Amino acid sequence: MVAPPDNDVLWARALHVTHNGSPALTGVSLGVREGEILAVTGPRGSGKTTLLRCLSGQLLPEQGEVWFNSTPVHNMGPVVRERLRRDRFGWIDPEPHLVPELTAWENVALPLMLRDASHRASKTTAQEWLERLDIGDCARKRPHALLQAQRQRIAIARALVTMPSVIFADEPTAPLHRADRAHVLRTLTTAARSHGITVVLATHDAEVAALADRTVALLDGRRVNTVHLPGAGEPTAPAAGAAGAAASSGSASDGDSDEAEGRAACSLSV
Ligand SMILES: Nc1ncnc2c1ncn2[C@@H]1O[C@H](COP(=O)(O)OP(=O)(O)OP(=O)(O)O)[C@@H](O)[C@H]1O
User: Fold this and answer.
1) Predicted model pTM
2) Cα radius of gyration (the chain)
3) Count of structural domains, the chain
4) Which of 2, 8, 28, 266 is the right S-S partner for 215, CB 3.0 to 4.6 Å?
5) Backbone angles phi, psi at 173, to 5 degrees
6) Does the Cβ of 236 fall within 6 Å of ligand 1?
7) pLDDT tens across 177-201, in order?
8) Does residue 206 lie within any of the structural domains?
9) Whether the CB of 73 sits within 6 Å of ligand 1
10) At a CB cut-off of 8 Å and minimum separation 6, what does 170 contact?
């Protein structure tokens, strides 16, 4: 087992995952640097969610390694992985899963209260994050009384409130209108940058990917150097080798090569 480079907060090598016998990741390797905003792009079904679930310790790969800060995640038992996820990682889903009975600030404060922070301190911190995300005036409202974009901001605040090392954001703006999408994304990336939080962002949208520092492209579960992504308003490319989602010049990477580790460019054809 070879230890990962020191400056990578996350590092994965030659990940193989199948779902019901069908390959979802085939030899994917990558490193994520501390404080970086990394977009994982590719058409629907290309393996983005599966990769984020492996990197965050939710899913163990059938083959391959995942390291977080030089600690092997793929060898951890379920209890230790669960603690790692709770203490060091945040997760944002495409749809905001909020507790309907709780107010906005209570939803945001929940992870702090689960860590035994005091009610008063949790409330103050939650309110600060709501204000940073421009929804301070929603603090006392329950999710049903809020717009989708406001609910998604609450989910983002909830992911940020514990100041995790890494936030995994799986298509975090997928259900939003274009204007909301850009605003919510900028809010997330600005907050992450100003607090040194690493973000791994899955998206099939070129405009979203353009906000990242670097892009890793997937196609049919493999790393590729380029993939055509639709921008807003353009129809989404179908998965699995379809026209409009073409990998460049056969350079799909099978894991271990330096090129595969390297700086995959994404052709952002908006
Ligand atoms: N729980 C599951 N059971 C069976 N197949 C699955 C499961 N999850 C994903 N898959 C399949 O694995 C492949 C990769 O899926 P994944 O969700 O990782 O891709 P994705 O790029 O995130 O797609 P999307 O943008 O649609 O979420 C797809 O073919 C998908 O149908």
Assistant:
1) 0.83
2) 18
3) 1
4) 266
5) -115, 10
6) no
7) 888 888 888 889 998 999 999 999 9
8) yes
9) no
10) 48, 49, 52, 91, 92, 93, 94, 202
